[in-house]
Structures are given as C-alpha cells and as structure tokens.
Amino acid sequence: MTSRRTGVQSFERGLALLRAFGAERTAMTTAEAASAAGLTRAAARRLLMTLQEQGYAQFDGKRYTLTPRVLELGFAWLSAQPLFGVGEPVAKQLAERLNETVSIGTLDIPDVVYLVRALSSRALHLRVGPGTRIPAHTSSMGLILLGSLEPAQLDAFFKQWPRRRYTDRTPVEEGEVRALIEAAGRDGYCYLRGVMEDSIAGLSVPVRDRAKGRAIAALNVSTSLQRTSPEEAFAKLLPEMRAAAQSIEAALR
C-alpha cells in the first residue's frame, strides 16, 4: 500500500526551483533551471514566469535571476528569531575585539545554516552569509551541534550526510566523523583547519538552552592559518568565545 501524499506538489516544485538558485547558479535559462531543480522544462517555465510576475525573479531575454524581494521570504523568519536579535550584536562586538570573522549557526540536518556573520577587517576567502548552508561534518559549528544530538538523531544524520571532499583534510569516513563529533561533545569546543578551505581554520563553542542543557546554536571564529596557530586560538580566542556564548545564553533565558 502506497503512502498518501499530503503536500501540494506545485508548491514543492516552486520551492525546489528557488533552492536551485545560489552562489554557483545566480542566473539560469529555463532549461538550466529545469535540470537543476529536477523539473520538466514546461513546469520550470511556468514557475519562473510566476516568480517574475510576483516580483521575485527577472528575465533578461535569456536567463532568469532572483530579485532582492526574495529576501523577504528568509528575513521574515530570521528577524523573528530571538537568537538572531541577541546574537548579532554580540557577534559584531566579538569580531571587533578579536579582528576576526565571527559567525553563529544552527543545525538543519545534514547542514549547518548560518544565522549571523560578522566580518572583520581581515577578510577571508570563504564567501558565506546568513542563510548559507554547508555540510555539518565540514564545519566546527556542525560538529559541535552534532555532538549534542541523541543517538537516533545522529544516526539520521549519517543516513543522509554528503561525503563531499573539499580539501585533503575533509573527513569523509563515518568513523572519523563520529570520532570528531564525540570529541567536540566531550571537550565543549571544536577546532578544524583546512577542511573547507586550505588556508582557513575554525574554532566553535556551543550556545546552549540553559533550561534543557542542549546546544541550540554554535558560535564560531574563523581565522587564517598563517596568522593564528592552534595554540594561539586556544589561548586567545577560546576564552573570549566562551564568554560571548554565555552572554547570549543569559540573554535568551
């Protein structure tokens, strides 16, 4: 007996089409959009025309691009999150004190989603911002958050995690990733270097729901391997990060 569908298929297709746009596909023809979203050309054309009519896309005669109006869809949710309102000023202050890039992210299996990104004057090559998703196992934020999951939830992650290798240091074996997750949960911090970009290191600590004692987000500092050694990160960055995470936790009570 087949399971009964409860979703609206046309809406699902529209969401798939919106998700197909991104940093690697900012402009697409109808055929390219159909291929990226797994749709027929006819379905993609109808959806793209609807997005254009509603002001969410524009067409230059060959390719479609999304318009800034799309931000309404994400930022309406983001601005309503207490974690964003509390975390953004803390992240900006920390980035200014350390002169390093600071981020706050949350888990949406199998990814980490960036909620806050506070840049420093020392720019990094990794282009991410609020709403950016990266595989959780490639991020110190992701490993911290995976370390707070129940065993059944962690098993669910490993059923769908993408084993994509970004650098020679990217962990792609389940045993290795499980060991990193266990260490992050035990130590209360996670340090990774050269996993997403060869020249970048990331250090993360959890932001906890004090009532439930579980991590609801992670606070991250990204730095260049050339200017910050692991020893310097632990001595200089970690105490500041823990204090910042605690201030966010206190404000969320």
How would you characterize this protein structure?
Residues 8-68 form the HTH iclR-type domain. InterPro entries: GAF-like_dom_sf, HTH_MetabolicPath_Reg, Tscrpt_reg_IclR_C, Tscrpt_reg_IclR_N, WH-like_DNA-bd_sf, WH_DNA-bd_sf. One of its GO terms (molecular function) is DNA binding. It holds the Pfam family IclR_C. This protein has 253 residues and is α+β, with helices and mostly antiparallel strands. It has 2 domains: 9-69, Winged helix-like DNA-binding domain superfamily/Winged helix DNA-binding domain (Arc Repressor Mutant, subunit A, Orthogonal Bundle), CATH 1.10.10.10; 81-252, 2-Layer Sandwich (Beta-Lactamase). The chain is built from 9 helices and 9 strands. Strands 6-5-4-9-8-7 form a 6-stranded antiparallel β-sheet. It has a 3-stranded antiparallel β-sheet with strand order 1-3-2. The N and C termini lie far apart (47 Å). The mean pLDDT is 91.
Blueprint of the fold:
Blueprint: H1 9-20, E1 27-28, H2 30-37, H3 41-53, E2 57-59, E3 64-66, H4 71-79, H5 82-98, E4 101-108, E5 111-118, E6 133-135, H6 140-146, H7 151-158, H8 174-187, E7 190-193, E8 200-209, E9 214-224, H9 230-252
Helix pairs in contact: 1-2, 2-3, 5-9, 6-8
Average the pLDDT over all residues and give the rounded result: 91
Oligomer: single chain
Structural class given helices, strands, pairing? alpha+beta
Number of H/I helices: 9
Strand order of the largest sheet: 6-5-4-9-8-7
Query: Uncertain regions: pLDDT < 50 for 5+ in a row?
Result: none
Q: What is the CATH class designation of the largest domain?
A: Alpha Beta
